Amino acid sequence: MVVRRKKTTIHLNAKETTTILEVKKMIEGILKVPPENQMILKHLTEMEDDKTLGYYNLNGQTARAHTPASLGLCFRDPGG
């Protein structure tokens, strides 16, 4: 899977049983931004932390190595 924010592209390996919160924790390990300040988007819709990638139809059939799933990443303002 590919997560993009502006000019930053992150390649992640995740299963369809991985939750969105777990994806955010992977991103936190790379970009040092806590999950509560991240927003992951699929087709301009925010993905919910407690849902899995499979819930959003991201699985081995829809996201392959040569055509990975592409998600958007936004950061929330920690000050509100």
What's this model, at a glance?
Pfam families: ubiquitin (PF00240). 15% of the residues lie in helices and 26% in strands.
**What is the number of helical segments per DSSP (H or I, 4+ residues)?**
1
Strand order of the largest sheet: 2-1-5-3-4
Sheet with the most strands, sense and barrel status: 5 strands, mixed
* Helix fraction by DSSP (H/I, runs of at least 4): 10-25%
Into how many domains do the coordinates divide?
1
CATH fourth-tier homologous superfamily: Phosphatidylinositol 3-kinase Catalytic Subunit, Chain A, domain 1
Count all strands and give the number: 5
Jot down its keywords:
single chain, 80 residues, alpha+beta, Ubiquitin-like (UB roll), 5-stranded mixed sheet, 26% strand, globular, translation elongation factor activity, Ubiquitin-like_domsf, elongation factor, Transcription elongation factor B polypeptide 2, ELOB
What does this structure look like?
This is Transcription elongation factor B polypeptide 2. One of its GO terms (biological process) is transcription elongation by RNA polymerase II. Keywords: Elongation factor, Protein biosynthesis. The protein has 80 residues and is α+β, with helices and mostly antiparallel strands. It has one domain (2-75): Phosphatidylinositol 3-kinase Catalytic Subunit, Chain A, domain 1 (Ubiquitin-like (UB roll)). Helix content is 15%, strand content 26%. The protein contains 1 helix and 5 strands; from the N terminus they run E-E-H-E-E-E. The chain has one helix at 20-31, and strands at 2-5, 8-11, 38-42, 45-46, 70-75. It has a 5-stranded mixed β-sheet, with helices on one face. Strand 1 (2-5) and strand 2 (8-11) form a beta hairpin. The radius of gyration is 12 Å and the shape is globular. The relative contact order is 0.28. The mean pLDDT is 90.
